[in-house]
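Researcher: Let's continue the batch. This sequence belongs to Peptidyl-tRNA hydrolase, and it's 192 residues. Same format as the previous ones, please.
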Amino acid sequence: MKMVVGLGNPGREYEKTKHNIGFMVIDAMAAKEAHTPWREDFKALITTITIDGEKVLLVKPQTFMNASGESVGPLMRYYKIDASDVYCVYDDMDLPVGKIRIRPNGSAGGHNGIKSLIAHMGTSEFPHFRFGIGRPLPQWTVIDHVLAPFPEEQQDKVNKGIEDMAKAILGTLEVGLDKGMNLYNPRKGRRQ
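Model: Same format as before. Here are the structure tokens for Peptidyl-tRNA hydrolase:
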């Protein structure tokens, strides 16, 4: 069994914010695949899809971003899922808007949701699916930036990025992480 965790904040006021890109990608994946009814469990909204005969949990923690690990750690232990089978999708300010990058592991890089996951999972050795949200405007704080919606002029890039990321995660679930990184990570000189 594998688990795909999309990071975000619960509540209508956060729905369209940059910090909720993980939820948006999970919703896009659920829209592409037959899935069980959503249920609330382990402080998360959870549904199940099946990829190549293997069950995959799609998870949207409802703890607020900074406490995401309080949901993911217990879920991982309950279902006996290895950290290497917990795919985490989240917003990344170091990537341009809509760009995606897959890494086999990594540090939190200042991202509080990832810090919480590492603390509650006891490891940073889980696949990171990073979605670019760009840097804050000069007069904006990081919090202002991540809790604001994407501007209208970026919406096409964001929608394409969500599609690309959903496709990349579903594809990686089929072919494995190494092949997935080869297939879906941008390469220098290759058009995206």
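Researcher: Any comment?
Model: The mean pLDDT is 95.
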